[in-house]
Amino acid sequence: MVFMIDDDDDALEIYSMLIEKSGYADYFVTHNNGIDALDALQEIHAGKQSFPSYILLDLNMPGLGGVDFVEKYEELYHQHYPQTEIIILTSSVREKDNEKALSYSSVSHFISKPLSKDKLIKMLSESASKS
């Protein structure tokens, strides 16, 4: 399963449409803010359901931003699901943002938007094979 967290509804819709045509729609879940995503992760954890293999996370969001989400995620879930990779998707080109994000053990990549369709499908394919 792949979670995508982004406050840009257009981006979520575009990625969802791409995924719908790919055959991996069952493995792709979107949230438009970090708080809702953390709530969903809590339900999955409590229900002992299959936890996401990847979390695609926008860095710059109002309220609970990407870095704040990662801090909460590491506090609550990283020790239980060390195989889950958080991939930061951002329009930021600041090296400071890249270094900060990659300083967290749960963050594996820092990718500039947009995420290519091919890269997204590859991640979903790998996620489906882990399930």
CATH topology category name: Rossmann fold
Mean pLDDT score: 88
Which sequence of SSEs, written as H and E, runs from N to C?
EHEHEHEHEH
Task: Please give the domain count.
Answer: 1
Q: State the helical fraction.
A: 40-55%
Q: How would you describe the shape? A: globular
Going across the biggest sheet, name each strand in turn. 2-1-3-4-5
Cα end-to-end separation: 8 Å
Strand element count: 5
CATH C-level label: Alpha Beta
Structural class: alpha/beta
Major β-sheet profile:
5 strands, parallel
* Backbone CA Rg: 14 Å
| CATH H-level superfamily | Response regulator
Uncertain spans, ≥5 residues at pLDDT below 50?
none
**In percent terms, what proportion of residues is strand?**
15-25%
Number of helices: 5
Q: What CATH architecture do you see?
A: 3-Layer(aba) Sandwich
